[in-house]
Amino acid sequence: MTERSFDPSDEEVHADLMEQLLLGIHVAMPGRIQSYDAAHQVADIVLQVRHRYPDPDGTGQYLDEDYPVLPAVPILWPRCGKWFLAMSVEPGDAVQVLFNSSALGMWRRSTATDALSGLDRAIRGVSTVGDVGRHSLTHAVALLGMETFNQALRHAPDVATGNLSCLTLGRDTDDGTRLSIYGDGSMKITRGSTVVIQIDAAGTIQLGGTGLTALLDGLVTARGVDPFTGATYGALGNASAVVMAKK
Question: Which CATH superfamily is domain 10-100+135-144 in?
Answer without folding.
Answer: Gp5 N-terminal domain (2.40.50.230)
